[in-house]
# Entry
Amino acid sequence: MAKYNKILVTGGAGFIGTNFVRYVIKNNPDVQIVVLDKLTYAGNADNLKDLPEDRVQLVVGDINDADLVDQLVQKTQAVVHFAAESHNDRALHDPRVFMQTNLMGTFTLIEAARKYHVRFHHVSTDEVYGDLPLRPTTPDLDKFTTSSQYKPSSPYSATKAGADLLVRAWVRSFGLQATISNTSNNYGPYQHIEKFIPRQITNIMSGIRPKLYGNGQNVRDWIHVLDHVAGIWAILERGEIGETYLLGANEELDNLTVLQMILQNMGLDSQDFDFVADRPGHDLRYAIDATKAQNDLNWQPQYTDFAAGLQQTIQWYQAHQSWWQADKTAVEANYAKDKQ
Ligand code: NAD
Ligand code: DAU
# Structure
């Protein structure tokens, strides 16, 4: 039996939210989920359409709609909060909606959760800690831990850091029954094609040369999305109120290496890509120390072979062209405006 069997999932039609809903429904026959999702450019109702209607309900709406949030939160036992504006490149051009959704939207949700004494889990990012130097580093700068300083460097990560701090303050001041997870870069099925890995896969499939920012040396710490959602479920089931958990899979790779793995996997030459202008303020390296989550939650990443996970991801985009093809022209036109 699951600890909570009525769960409200915000952003459940986006990349990680979709994977979470599908994972929970598959593994927990006693759980019912209501998804609250605005269906922005990043949300897709079709991601959930094959799930049983008596267990998954999609409510199309905004987490800033306090009346709607109030109605939904009072009928649930737990809220898992994924909804956000999530893309750094967009935040650099239009930060306002990031303030509205990531800060005000989180505020609206935690107000309702405290009113109805509902368990709250806030899904956040390792980017709240800023970036780390490229290796070799001193031990204190080697990986992010739960005691790393908040030092966000981008408009997106600043809003996520602000949201984390709101949740922490609501725990301390109002006794909100909340936990937080900060996770590194996810990859896997259902990721929007504006993001690095699916952008390059779908570029190659569309006859467009992949694009690498700067010199390609920036490092990301990749975790398969199914390991991330299993970690969130473990926090809901076994996490301690007021605690923060860092979820990562020890898979630090520089962007050039990841791109060349994609090129090789798809039968192209390792030089078949273009270097383009760097992202302003581009964070150098992220790296997660997930020891606490592993020890306290009995959670371990299962997808530890990145090459195999990447190959499955490529195959997913190849098998689901209708899922992404209609968006491709607009996504690339958007990037072209910024000469990326
Ligand atoms: P995504 O952009 O793919 O999905 C976001 C979802 O939220 C979409 O379905 C969108 O329609 C919905 N949404 C946006 N604004 C909304 C609003 N105002 N009201 C209701 N719904 C709204 O994002 P993702 O990559 O799935 O990320 C989910 C969460 O995980 C975010 O909070 C993000 O910060 C965090 N996170 C992401 C990663 C990653 O690598 N993608 C890593 C760590 C943490
Ligand atoms: O670390 C967790 C974060 O990971 C999440 O909080 C964010 O929501 C998620 O988008 C992701 O942020 P990044 O900015 O790291 O992801 P993105 O996929 O945009 O870029 C990954 C790396 O690839 C980054 O160093 C920039 C680079 N890049 C990206 C794109 C889109 C390229 O070189 N070329 C590209 O075309």
Remarks:
- The chain has one domain: 6-192+222-252+283-305.
